[in-house]
Amino acid sequence: MGINIINANNKMKQISKDLLVERGVSIEAIAQIVYDLQIKYIPKITIEDCKDAIERVLDKREVQNAILTGIELDKLAEENKLSQPLETLINSDHPLYGIDEILVLSIVNVYGSIGFTNFGYVDKLKPGIIGKLDEEGKQPNKCNTFLDDIIGAIAAAAASSIAHNFEDDKE
Ligand code: MG
Asked: How far away, in angstroms, is 83 Cα from ligand 1 center?
């Protein structure tokens, strides 16, 4: 059963999307971040354009793998199922951990290096749902250490995809 799912990209995508919803993240909430990132460069952009770009990002295998891995670690940390000291590092979102940011580089880079600039920007400002997840993760029995970076990375990659597409349109 596991192998059949792994070989079916559409199933992997659906599982990834279901996991995001389970953790309280809608495509609409990510689309709003993408929109805010791109509206100053592309005034005619719509929320629908942003949702389409997020769907393209979620088609990518490396994105699905990062979502599955990061959210699993958040959930295991919440349930105190990790070994020490990793349990404390992840559950407390320890500033010297940093593997959450490293894991999502596989998402950030799917549309080239401009994703990196966008990711740095959202990681610092924590707009919309990212800020909410960050706050929620500070509650006891709640861990969003990987999730906030996953969402920031998806938004950054989607913004890059839109930037590339609109550049292509101009030519
Ligand atoms: Mg984090």
From this structure: 19
